[in-house]
## 1
Amino acid sequence: MDKHEPVVLSAPVGVGRLDAWLAEQLPVSRSRLKSMILAGEVLVNGKAVRPSTRLVGGEEVWVPAPAPPTTTLAAQDIPVEVLHLDEDV
């Protein structure tokens, strides 16, 4: 399994809810962040918290870097009707 460096953020004063603030800071959906927080993967000052946790400012927020998305693209053999064919095309 490939290890990724965690993202460590310092919360500014008055940011509000943890999940909403992280969704603004990271290219991760709020629902995915909520799942990560509930699973205890996101830590605030070294402790697992709830998504609705209100940050007052100065907290250190540790978020594991998301693994790159996996793709399952596969070529498909799709018949194409040729309408015109000449020397230039």
Note: The chain has a mean pLDDT of 87.
## 2
Amino acid sequence: MALTRPIDAAALDRDGLKAAAAAFHKQGYNCAQSVICALAPALGLDSDTAFRMTEGFGAGMGGMTETCGAITGAVAGLGTASSRGEGDPTSKAATYGLARKLVEAFREKNGTTVCRELKGVGSEGGPVRSCPGCIEDAIDIAVDILSK
């Protein structure tokens, strides 16, 4: 699927995005906010809007430790890039396909997409992946998808 929103390819610098996302996370942004706010300039998205719309996605959707916030932030970015907008809702199937690619790649890399499993909550084995690591993975996968 061709992306419907122009992407600033220069702003898809993987290392720069990871550094920006890490800095956001250190400032107290949740994982979803860290990912989408790092991607916002490349997507032509207002970062305050991105921050606000993903505030409830942190800690696995409102602190419920379900789907990893880094994943949801990246999926929000993919939707921003691929949706045709409210005037033409026919792009959702293609956007779902991009979201599936991201989720499948994340799961393949980490074994799960569930926040509590990634953090090792209730597990004797400990964490699978740290929040900063999940943020990096989500950025990497999103850049791979957006660069195609």
Note: Residues 92-110 form the longest helix (19 residues).
